[in-house]
């Protein structure tokens, strides 16, 4: 039976029940829970150090009002990194290759930043739609363009994460298929192709972490404009 390369992105079913909920909730079980003891083990210490460093880096350009989002943004980045990394394991499903899930993250958070800006500083928020010093004949056109670019932001967030992960998974599957096909016919070429596959896998590990960081970083920049 011929299997499509895109079948790997279909949500797995068991007895007709989609297992994407398990794939989303499972990452939280993998992280160790900090204890109340004065001295923790090395894993918890490294985990806390990394989270503190990222939080400081993310909250640096924001004022005190934006620091309320620290827990949400850091939790989202850790969640996305974990899902993306687990999706690189064999016979696993990556929920972040689904545009619906990524848009479910992007749209509410983007809308929250817009609502905060309209509530706290409506003049500044609306001023972003019209750059200073714009010639009077161009004012209607620029307002339309800036409004469209504003509403495209959540779409760009979701599509960027989905497209990068989907492309990487497809490349890995294509090259892995080529290795198995070439191995009995041209072993030398198959070994070279396997080396490329290994390097591509390392690249996808980096992409999995970078894309999660970019997703949260862009949300923090949107928040910075509205707080």
Overview of the molecule:
It comes from Tor putitora (Putitor mahseer). InterPro entries: ATP_synth_F0_asu, ATP_synth_F0_asu_AS, ATP_synth_F0_asu_bact/mt, F0_ATP_A_sf. One of its GO terms (molecular function) is proton-transporting ATP synthase activity, rotational mechanism. The structure is a single chain. The chain has 227 residues and is an all-alpha fold. The chain has one domain. The protein has helices at 20-25, 27-30, 42-59, 70-86, 99-120, 122-127, 139-182, 187-226; strands spanning 13-14, 17-18. A two-stranded antiparallel ribbon has the order 1-2. Helix 4 (70-86) runs antiparallel to helix 8, helix 5 packs antiparallel against helix 7 (139-182) and helix 7 runs antiparallel to helix 8. The longest helix is centred in the last third of the chain and has 44 residues, at 139-182. It starts with 12 loop residues before the first strand and ends with a helix. The model has no long low-confidence stretch (mean pLDDT 84).
Principal-axes geometry comes out as globular
Helix content: 55-70%
Task: Write the H/E string, N to C.
Answer: EEHHHHHHHH
Mean pLDDT, nearest integer?
84
Number of helical runs?
8
- Strand content bin: under 5%
Largest sheet: 2 strands, antiparallel
Briefly note the structural class of the backbone: mainly alpha
Low-pLDDT regions: none
Domain tally: 1
Q: How far apart lie the N and C ends? A: 56 Å
Biggest sheet, strands in spatial order? Answer: 1-2
């Amino acid at each position: 039976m011929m299997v499509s390369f895109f079948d790997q992105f279909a949500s797995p079913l068991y007895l007709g029940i989609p297992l994407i909920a398990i794939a989303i909730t499972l990452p939280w079980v993998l992280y160790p829970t900090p204890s109340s003891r004065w001295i923790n083990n090395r894993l918890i210490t490294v985990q806390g150090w990394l989270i503190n460093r990222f939080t400081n880096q993310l909250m640096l350009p924001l004022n005190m009002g934006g620091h309320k989002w620290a827990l949400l943004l850091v939790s989202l980045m850790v969640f996305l990194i974990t899902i993306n990394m687990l999706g690189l394991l064999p016979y696993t499903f990556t929920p972040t290759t689904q545009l619906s899930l990524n848009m479910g993250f992007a749209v509410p958070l983007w809308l929250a930043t817009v609502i905060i800006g309209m509530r706290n500083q409506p003049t500044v928020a609306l001023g972003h739609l019209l750059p200073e010093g714009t010639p009077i004949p161009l004012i209607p056109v620029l307002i339309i363009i800036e409004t469209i670019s504003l509403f495209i932001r959540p779409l760009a967030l979701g599509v960027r994460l989905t497209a990068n992960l989907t492309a990487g998974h497809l490349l890995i599957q294509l090259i892995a298929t080529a290795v198995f096909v070439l191995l009995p016919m041209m072993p030398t070429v198959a070994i070279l192709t396997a080396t490329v596959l290994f390097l591509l896998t390392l690249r996808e590990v980096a992409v999995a972490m970078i894309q999660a960081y970019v997703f949260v970083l862009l949300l923090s920049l949107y928040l910075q404009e509205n707080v």
